[in-house]
Amino acid sequence: MIALRNVEKYFEHGPTKTFVLRRIALDIKEGEFISIMGPSGAGKSTLLHLLGMHDSAWTGEYHFLNQPIHKLNKKDRGELYKKYIGFVFQSYHLLDSLTVYENLDIPLSYRNIKKSERQSIVCDILDRFNMVGKKDLYPNQLSGGQQQLVAVARAMVASPKLILADEPTGNLHSSQGKEIMELFKKLNEEGTTIVQVTHNEKNAEYGNRIIQIEDGWIVNN
User: Fold this and answer.
1) Which of 104, 107, 177, 213 could form a disulfide with 158 if both were Cys (CB 3.0 to 4.6 A apart)?
2) Is 17 helix (H, G, I), strand (E, B) or coil?
3) Rounded to whole angstroms, how far apart are CA atoms 16 and 35?
């Protein structure tokens, strides 16, 4: 599903370069559940955002579903992202001007899905996350944990082929966090590929492979 070859990212300060990712070579098969671990500042989230096509300032080769991402323009990358990827951001990234319901409807509106069908899908996921009573609230009316649940639900709503999650349980209390991880596990068993960044060893064990990053290098794959 994913192949990275010699991927590097750096920032230039005059004549010097500060590398965030170094010579990354990584293959992720469809249906895998990968956990990325490593110390703070190691490059974990940078790698995840690169996989999620949010970042185009890197060198090397990235193939996603046999498409050469490194050769595509921003618009074509965006189309692939909307069609196949769900992303759980560490800082939620919910749209403050939209209700919970509308935030969940947005990923579906990018696809060719009839409004009645979209309503049914959103209602199902609200029910699954026990959020039916909060559908008309705005993000600033929710607690951090509730916003995180909406962010996870939004990543899942369009049944993407790939879910990328940056510390998905970071703002949840332990029972909610376990619930989310069990949900990911079930989705993975149903065929969704999942890549998560986590500091939590218990959460990492839900994956079938752990990738360690240190100082921008993959040290264990």
Assistant:
1) 107
2) strand
3) 32
pTM comes to 0.92
- In the chain, the domains with their CATH numbers are 2-93+160-220 (3.40.50.300)
DSSP strand pairing (217-220 vs 33-37):
unpaired
Output the average pLDDT for the chain: 94
Contact call for residues 218 and 211 (beta carbons, < 8 A):
yes
pLDDT value, residue 120: 96
In the chain, the largest separation of any two C-alpha atoms, in whole Å, equals 57
One-letter amino acid at 50 equals L
Residue-wise pLDDT for 48-69, tens only, equals: 999 999 988 999 999 999 999 9
Separation of alpha carbons 4 and 106, rounded Å? 29
DSSP SS3 for 203: helix
Burial code (b: 16+ CB inside 10 Å, e: under 16) for 170-182 equals bbbeeebbebbbe
Q: Which residue has the higher pLDDT, 131 or 220?
A: 131
220: enclosing H helix or E strand = strand 217-220
Going by the DSSP 8-state scheme, the letter that residue 137 receives in this structure is: -
Residue 171, pLDDT > 80, answer no
Q: Is the pLDDT of residue 123 over 90?
A: yes
Nearest to 24, CA basis, from 16, 100, 55: 55
Based on the number of CB atoms within 10 Å of its own CB, is 107 exposed (0-12), middle (13-18) or buried (19 or more)? buried
